[in-house]
UniProtKB/TrEMBL annotation:
Species this chain originates from: Chrysolophus pictus
Family matches, as PROSITE patterns: HORMA
Protein name: HORMA domain-containing protein 1
Entry's Gene Ontology BP terms: meiotic cell cycle; oogenesis; spermatogenesis
Residues in the signal sequence: none
Amino acid sequence: MLGCYDALQKKYLRMVVLAVYTHPDDPQTITECYHFKFKYTPNGPVLNFSSKNKQGDSPISCADTKKASILLIRKIYVLMQNLGPLPNNVCLTMKLFYYDEVTPPDYQPPGFKEGECEGMIFEGEPMYLNMGEVPTPFHMLKVKVTTDKQRVENCDESILKQREPSLPLPVLTVDGDEVEESQNIKEDPVLDNKVGDGDHADALEAQGRTCVLF
């Protein structure tokens, strides 16, 4: 995690991807993943969890933030009561994406090595869970979770959002929120067929250099 902070302090970090996988020899086939996106403003970094909607410029009070935080925590608690356990012996991988225009070509944060900018495929049928958002005067935090449909039992429909099975799995991108706003198919940009094996080698073209935890 110290490597993440180093890249964040230097304003290089664009997105962190945490993915859970079950086969040690195949970290690209995942069962659950989380996206943390960053933007930089004069007031400091802005953290965004798989955001697709923009927040207006209206002032946010401490009371608003407190109320939204309580509601989000309650919603997460409800989800945890209904979400089945992960398989035994799961593994965790982390990928960092950078802003190429400001990141030195040879930069590698502590604890990370250069990645191959590979996509990921989902093991099983993915389910997209909209958890909620917390606005503050400095940033907007939104939480979404992608997990296996079989792990979801009786969650409230307001936090479930299942993609139609006929639609192709979207590309793992690090595009700006304005792209996600205009293309709903990429509102949860977490999945793709494997790349780097020849068939999809350009799937993440121009999306930024990556590194992986070792």
